[in-house]
Design brief:
This protein is mainly alpha-helical and about 170 residues long. The chain is built from 6 helices and 2 strands.
Length: about 170
């Protein structure tokens, strides 16, 4: 059951990311509008680049390498370039998650953060962390979108389950 739950969380994660990303990309210059220093990242593009960067870093850590830095806003010239990279990452991430077994969920992953400090944790909680982390930043992105153009559609997991899973 745990593996099935993790896989569904990642299906939801991809759906919710794409749902808001597509709206942000449709805003043109609005995606790079500086919304102020009180956000984790001051632009929609920066926010989505951070979600991408975190997903990218965690996938690499689970695969045995620890990037020295997170990819971010400056690594992508446009939302379109970010989307292209994200599509490839989603393919790799899906393959990794689809290959996870119940035994893998308790496997300890040793990794280094971007400051070089080493950590050790079971894969299961790390997989959950990535989806939870993105939820925080998606809420910021949804608020930015609301301020720029109006409230975006719901990205809650219940909405996902009704719309996509049919439950």
């Amino acid at each position: 059951m745990a593996v099935a739950l993790i896989r569904e969380l990642y299906e939801y994660h991809r759906w919710a990311n794409r749902r808001l990303f597509d709206i942000a990309a449709g805003l043109g210059d609005g995606a790079t509008r500086d919304m102020g220093a009180h956000w984790s990242f001051p632009t929609l593009k920066g926010t989505f680049a951070h979600i991408y960067g975190a997903d990218h870093a965690w996938l690499r850590r689970w695969q045995g390498s620890s990037p020295g830095r997170l990819l971010g806003d400056a690594d992508f010239a446009s939302m379109a370039e970010l989307r292209t990279s994200w599509d490839a990452l989603e393919t790799d991430q899906r393959a990794f998650v689809d290959a996870v077994s119940e035994a893998d969920l308790v496997r300890v992953v040793a990794y280094r953060n971007t400051q070089g400090k080493e950590f050790r944790m079971a894969l299961g909680p790390l997989l959950q962390h990535v989806v939870n982390h993105a939820t925080h930043h998606r809420s910021e992105a949804a608020t930015m979108i609301t301020l720029i153009s109006g409230s975006p559609p719901d990205t809650g997991i219940n909405t996902y389950r009704v719309a996509v899973v049919g439950v």
